[in-house]
Amino acid sequence: xxxIERAVExxxxxxxxxxxxxxxxRHLGGAEVEAALEAVAAHYAGRGIELVKRGDRWHFQTAxxxxxLLRREREDVRRLSRAATEALAIIAYQEPVSRxxxxxxxxxxxxxxxLDVLMEAGWVRVAGRREGPGRPTIYATTPAFLAxxxxxxxxxxxxxxxxRAAGLLDxxxxxxxxxxxxxxDTERDGPNEA
Length: 194
Prior knowledge:
Helix content is 48%, strand content 14%. It has eleven helices and six strands. The protein has a three-stranded antiparallel sheet with strand order 1-3-2. Helix 1 (3-14) packs across helix 3.
């Protein structure tokens, strides 16, 4: 390992939060760090800790196959409400998106507290304001969202076929199938005679 690789390793190990290549470069006096990051990542590949890139930021994490060893016996699991889960999915797939757009997709109003919970978790951020009437606030996901769900970028979000294969779309499709069965087929039944 050369000196720049050692410096990158030390800086990331001591960092309080994931760092981008630009931040590392500035921290290390303008050094070229891209090749060093790749070398350090290769050095740690397959070990107990790994250097990973989430979005445009790098950090060390426990190897996924060993994470269970470090979990505490009692985890404080905080579940998202259905509204928060739906809002998060809409933001992830449609970002940047306004509250009105989230409500249009969900078909119901979204409480301000729902977005506050997602921002408090660090998964959603205010991404600015949309040009247009009222200049609504728009929301986007954060690097913490990518890290939480083990994604390198939003392109890694599962597509519709992957969701269907995982059985996550079956309940929705079943509802649509039931609704279709309940609607009378006027062409097949013929006109109503009075």
